[in-house]
Inverse folding.
């Protein structure tokens, strides 16, 4: 069946509406605040083969994970799939979703006596067993300690509930009534979506429906590949690190663009660890797709066609593609965020080198989800019964700055949709749990300085009020390695957490700490991470600096020391002094290119390599000063003096300076033992030396 443009769009919006209604049903029928208020749920539609068609709800990361869950149903049940069946799965090692708490409920949709599609819903459950209340167990060393793990099992068979399955599950969780209600909310959501889809299939026919699914995916893949083809062929590289308190685990990403293909390769990633942030390749690919959609193919549906245009490789046995029985309780946090952020930085590097890419207006650093500071608590609740919950207030980190604007406060995204998960109102949290907020406010002090500053993270603290003691587990990131900026922007501030005794004062704890105790009257405080800046701080407009001082974000002294602005009269005479100081303190460049090639530079077309760097013939040149930085095919930064500054033990920033002016062209955040961890090598740069020789 051939569908015209109008028919395809009508079908697309119908299917999206079905998922939207299914997601709204979850919100109306679930009971946990994280689901109802925080929006931690999704409704996904897949075709009869388990290929992604579309999704709804806040958590788009669930969409691609649903393909793994449906594949698990086929593996476990083969042809034993009937109308009226409902399946549940939660084990990432065996057909689950993002982690054990994100349970999938899946329902096959039958029409005209054949399987035509699947509805797959997921949300975060308050507890699924394991060694820690809430099932986030940073100290777990294998998956057996983390949760009850279920491959695809039937909770309903042919319309009849399977009480044995329900009993096994609910017998292994700490709050069975709450868990059951949230699962039934997911079941209500798949029922609504499946009913709508069955009606459509009966009306237009099963074959026509599958043709529509295929056409949507085909058109999406073709459209995305057309945009990829406008990115410069080449090799782009960036490295992230995942922290286990003082330990650091390396995640390098090498991205290759070749025609209409793009491949994110994580070869060299640290081996899987005994820590709970090991992940799976399908989770990494799912996250990268969600983040890319904010930058390329924004109007396209996030379906199988979108993902088929993107190639992701994670070595088996690495912490991004671990094997059983590695712990995976935070498979969608920490390392997976760091991986997607490394991938996004390479994508931004590729776009910065591509004058024809439609993604250029969105140039920035990566989003900052890896710096999330989530915490789970358990103890006696306000009703007197044992309670357990997760607090996501610390996810209100700051976004990176863009190439034309300051970063967004309290949000890890600069552009695109709202945050993937919503922070509860203070009043809602206080009404459910034994705590009293002391404050929740925008951070102060220098963070993510640049021509455009990074977004501000949240500062918040609460005191235990109404329970004799709470036990907590912090699940945060980037307490040592701050989030990088772009084009010379300074990194944002790292995450920090403190426990406050009203008598003894504050005690810092690691961002990954299980089993700390808060007696009544004691407090918990987080300073969430900030996003990195864009551009040299000495290029920030004076009016913007003065506005930050007026708003109380920075002090007059910081305005002078960081931005070179005297707030008393708005003068910028200090900037020249700071530029000279940088050059005096910097390490000499790797090479000192011959600057006597003005004729070749003048006659060559200027093409971008990186922000502030352009290619002229076989030379990389600073746009600001015209200084030659390197000759092809060497790294463009070889001619830059490098100002190295310590951030924390084993972590440093390296500021690559314009040799002609002292302005910062690029700021790298890296461990002290890491060689240069970034690369932007368009194919035309790598090939220009050969062309010159010929």
């Amino acid at each position: 069946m051939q569908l015209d443009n109008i028919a395809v769009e009508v079908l697309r919006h119908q299917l999206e509406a079905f998922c939207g209604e299914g997601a709204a049903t979850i919100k109306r029928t679930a009971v946990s605040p994280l689901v109802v208020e925080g929006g931690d749920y999704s409704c996904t539609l897949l075709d009869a083969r388990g290929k992604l068609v579309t999704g709804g709800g806040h958590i788009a990361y669930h969409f691609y994970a649903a393909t793994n869950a449906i594949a698990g149903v086929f593996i476990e049940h083969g042809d034993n799939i009937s109308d009226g069946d409902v399946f549940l799965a939660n084990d990432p090692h065996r057909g689950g979703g993002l982690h054990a708490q994100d349970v999938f409920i899946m329902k096959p949709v039958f029409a005209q006596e054949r399987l035509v599609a699947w509805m797959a819903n997921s949300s975060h459950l308050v507890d699924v067993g394991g060694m820690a209340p809430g099932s986030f167990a940073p100290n777990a060393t294998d998956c057996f300690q983390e949760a009850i793990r279920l491959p695809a099992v039937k909770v309903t068979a042919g319309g009849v509930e399977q009480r044995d399955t329900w009993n096994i599950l609910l017998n292994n969780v700490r709050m069975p009534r709450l868990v059951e209600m949230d699962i039934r909310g997911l079941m209500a959501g798949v029922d609504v979506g499946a009913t709508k889809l069955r009606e459509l299939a009966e009306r237009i026919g099963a074959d026509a429906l599958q043709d529509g699914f295929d056409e949507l995916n085909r058109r999406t893949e073709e459209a995305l590949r057309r945009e990829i083809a406008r990115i410069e062929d080449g090799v782009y590289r960036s490295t992230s690190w995942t922290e286990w308190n003082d330990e650091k685990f390396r995640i390098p990403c090498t991205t290759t663009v070749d025609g209409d293909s793009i491949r994110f390769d994580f070869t060299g990633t640290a081996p899987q660890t005994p820590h709970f942030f090991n992940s799976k390749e399908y989770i990494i690919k799912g996250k990268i797709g969600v983040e890319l959609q904010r930058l390329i193919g924004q109007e396209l549906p996030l379906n199988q066609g979108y993902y088929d245009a993107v190639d992701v490789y994670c070595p088996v046995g690495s912490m991004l593609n671990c094997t059983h029985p590695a712990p995976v309780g935070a498979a969608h946090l920490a390392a997976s965020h760091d991986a997607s952020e490394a991938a996004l930085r390479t994508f931004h590097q590729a776009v910065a080198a591509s004058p024809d890419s439609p993604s250029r207006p969105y140039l920035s650093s990566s989003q900052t989800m890896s710096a999330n500071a989530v915490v789970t608590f358990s103890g006696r609740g306000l009703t007197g019964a044992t309670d357990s919950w997760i607090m996501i207030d610390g996810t209100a980190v700051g976004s990176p700055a863009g190439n034309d604007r300051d970063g967004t406060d309290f949000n890890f995204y600069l552009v695109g949709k709202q945050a993937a998960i919503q922070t509860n109102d203070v009043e809602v949290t206080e009404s459910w749990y034994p705590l009293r907020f002391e404050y929740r406010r925008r951070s102060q002090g220098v963070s993510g300085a640049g021509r455009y500053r990074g977004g501000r993270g949240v500062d918040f603290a609460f005191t235990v009020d109404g329970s004799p003691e709470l036990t907590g587990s912090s699940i945060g990131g980037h307490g040592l390695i701050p989030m990088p900026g772009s084009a010379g922007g300074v990194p944002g501030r790292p995450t920090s957490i403190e426990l406050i005794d009203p008598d003894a004062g504050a005690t810092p704890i690691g961002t990954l700490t299980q089993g700390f105790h808060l007696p009544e009257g004691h407090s918990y405080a987080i300073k969430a991470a900030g996003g990195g800046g864009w551009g040299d701080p000495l290029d920030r407009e004076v009016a913007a600096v003065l506005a930050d001082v007026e708003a109380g974000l920075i002090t007059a002294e910081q305005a002078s020391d960081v931005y070179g602005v005297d707030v008393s009269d708005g003068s910028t005479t200090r900037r020249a002094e700071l530029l000279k100081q940088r050059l005096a303190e910097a390490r000499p460049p790797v090479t000192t290119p011959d600057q006597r090639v003005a004729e070749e530079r003048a006659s060559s077309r200027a093409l971008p390599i990186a922000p502030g760097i352009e290619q002229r013939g076989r030379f990389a040149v600073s746009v600001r000063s015209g200084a030659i930085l390197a000759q092809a095919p060497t790294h463009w930064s070889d001619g830059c003096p490098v100002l190295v500054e310590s951030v924390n033990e084993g972590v440093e920033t390296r500021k690559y300076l314009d040799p002609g002016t002292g302005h910062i062209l690029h700021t790298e955040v890296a461990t002290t033992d890491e060689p240069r961890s970034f690369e932007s090598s368009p194919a035309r740069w790598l090939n220009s030396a050969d062309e010159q020789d010929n």
User: Anything to note?
Assistant: The CA atoms of residues 316 and 322 lie 6 Å apart. The mean pLDDT is 94.
